Amino acid sequence: MKIKRTIQLLRRRWLTSLDCALNGGVLSLSQRCGDLRMQGFDVASKWVTTSGGARVKAWRIVRPTRWTA
């Protein structure tokens, strides 16, 4: 069930691992994004800088897919 919530979040906005965990998604976002790519999702990633100055990856589903959650 958490992967469905994660897919919904990724379709709406860019997510970091911490954002995903705090909003009811999975804890290992980078691994799940790899799994989603293997299932045919178009997942983009980019580096973002947090307010504290740390650089972390953010992910987002960039194109609609036939599979719906």
Description:
It is built from 3 helices and 2 strands, in the order H-H-H-E-E. The protein has 69 residues and is an alpha+beta fold. The protein is globular. It has a two-stranded antiparallel sheet with strand order 1-2. The chain has helices at 2-12, 17-22, 29-38, and strands at residues 43-49, 55-61.
Quick rundown:
It is built from three helices and two strands, in the order αααββ. The chain is α+β, with helices and mostly antiparallel strands. The chain has a two-stranded antiparallel ribbon with strand order 1-2.
Choose one word for the global shape: globular
Helical region count? 3
Helix percent band = 25-40%
Supply Rg.
12 Å
Question: Got a strand count?
Answer: 2
Structural class: alpha+beta
Main beta sheet: 2 strands, antiparallel
Overall average pLDDT: 90
Descriptive tags:
69 residues; alpha+beta; 2 strands
SSE topology:
Elements: H1 2-12, H2 17-22, H3 29-38, E1 43-49, E2 55-61
